[in-house]
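Summary of Year 1 activities. Much of the first year was spent building the evaluation harness for sequence design. The harness presents a backbone, in tokenized form, and records the residue chosen at every position. We chose the following record to illustrate the format because it has been used consistently in internal testing since the harness was completed.
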């Protein structure tokens, strides 16, 4: 697999004087990107093996190098001339005080350092803060639908069904039977993701954490708050969990890249609303595995896939909110809040996007258009629909076919 989007990002950052930090959920292909694709690129550029220092820190054979002083001494000893050296470290969070080690490497004039890691708290937060602008992050996602389709056989509808069921973790491309795919996802969720969160955050009550994950998986794309989740536990599960504990658990899930938060934004008021928020799974296959593949709602899963695709394309994505005034029979006015699925920002560009499985009639179209029209601004407005062809409406809103969107990385700019 090429993973060209991410390889090109790393290549662009080469020799920029920063630590290149490749983050992403476990098993999404970070090691392959660094140790295979980027390594092969360096070799093609004429860099010999002596000047490429590769260390997989999650490998038991390198356990001694998890000691910061051992790692520091080992790398410094490898640098014996004035040519450029490339330091490639996989799963650097295994090293205690790794920030100090990487800071040390920044002082080596002929060294260019690249690291991977699977925890946002240890990497995105600490490295970027510690290096004060000298840490440069590349975030890797599981396979997008277009990447998945490129390396799979079948028509787009059958591929969509498979992708919506099992997601885009690269290892699944090597597994043929649906039973084996299902078992793989369920096993790594428990033995890798959940176990990591429990151990890293020293959580003793694993049942509470698991229950919260189940609830989030069941309510993908729903507006929630820590307080509301706490009340749900109390009324449905008869379990008392303080809202602050729920908030901490949600942050742990985000730190591990299992879920991503989408904040609520008042379009007309041009301000963020602190709560409620939406949470989407980084991989829909993992979400389905968490629910033992019992809860398949194409509408919500499609919304999750679109959200992830927008992040892959570099957009900051929020939940939009606009208000409209409704005239009552007694001629009084009532305000009603309308939701825009995605408010997408990229530098100076903004898009408003609605997700709709289908638009079978004018009534459904008007329902989806209403919040977009109420923004009353000139930014591009789009409804992504699975079962409708790409075209513009009379109101200038783009109806964009789901597959036209997913299979063409430039679809949002070309139409």
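For this record, the design step produced the sequence shown next.
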């Amino acid at each position: 697999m090429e993973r060209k989007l991410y390889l090109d990002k790393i290549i662009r950052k080469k020799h920029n004087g920063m630590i290149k930090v490749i983050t992403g959920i476990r098993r999404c292909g970070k090691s392959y990107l660094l140790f295979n694709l980027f390594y092969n690129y360096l070799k093609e550029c004429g860099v010999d093996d002596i000047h490429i220092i590769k260390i997989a820190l999650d490998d038991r054979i390198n356990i001694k190098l998890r000691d910061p002083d051992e790692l520091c001494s080992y790398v410094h000893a490898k640098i014996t001339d004035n040519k450029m050296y490339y330091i490639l470290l996989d799963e650097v969070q295994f090293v205690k005080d790794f920030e100090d080690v990487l800071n040390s490497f920044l002082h080596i004039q002929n060294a260019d350092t690249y690291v991977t890691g699977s925890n946002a708290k240890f990497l995105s937060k600490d490295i970027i803060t510690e290096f004060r602008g000298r840490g440069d992050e590349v975030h890797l996602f599981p396979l997008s639908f277009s990447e998945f389709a490129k390396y799979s056989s079948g028509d787009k509808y059958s591929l969509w069904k498979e992708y919506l069921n099992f997601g885009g973790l690269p290892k699944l491309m090597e597994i043929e039977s649906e039973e084996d795919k299902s078992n793989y996802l369920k096993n790594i969720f428990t033995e890798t993701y959940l176990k990591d969160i429990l151990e890293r955050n020293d959580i003793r009550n694993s049942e509470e954490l698991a229950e919260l994950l189940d609830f989030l998986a069941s309510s993908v794309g729903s507006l929630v708050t820590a307080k509301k989740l706490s009340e749900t536990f109390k009324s449905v599960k008869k379990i008392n969990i303080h809202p602050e504990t729920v908030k901490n658990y949600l942050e742990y899930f985000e730190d591990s890249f299992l879920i991503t938060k989408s904040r609520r934004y008042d379009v007309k008021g041009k301000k963020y609303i602190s709560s409620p928020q939406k949470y989407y799974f980084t991989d829909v296959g993992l979400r389905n595995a968490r629910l033992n593949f019992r809860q398949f709602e194409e509408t919500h899963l499609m919304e999750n896939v679109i959200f992830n695709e927008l992040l892959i394309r570099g957009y900051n994505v929020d939940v939009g909110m606009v208000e409209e005034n409704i005239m009552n029979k007694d001629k009084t006015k009532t305000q009603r809040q309308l939701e825009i699925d995605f408010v997408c920002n990229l530098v100076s560009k903004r898009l408003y996007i609605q997700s709709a499985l289908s638009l079978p009639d004018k009534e459904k179209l008007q329902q989806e258009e209403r919040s977009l029209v109420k923004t009353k601004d000139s930014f591009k407005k789009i409804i992504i629909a699975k079962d409708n062809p790409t075209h513009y409406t009379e109101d200038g809103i783009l109806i964009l076919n789901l597959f036209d969107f997913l299979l063409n990385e430039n679809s949002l700019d070309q139409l």
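The mean pLDDT is 92. Quantitative recovery figures across the full test set are reported in Table 2.
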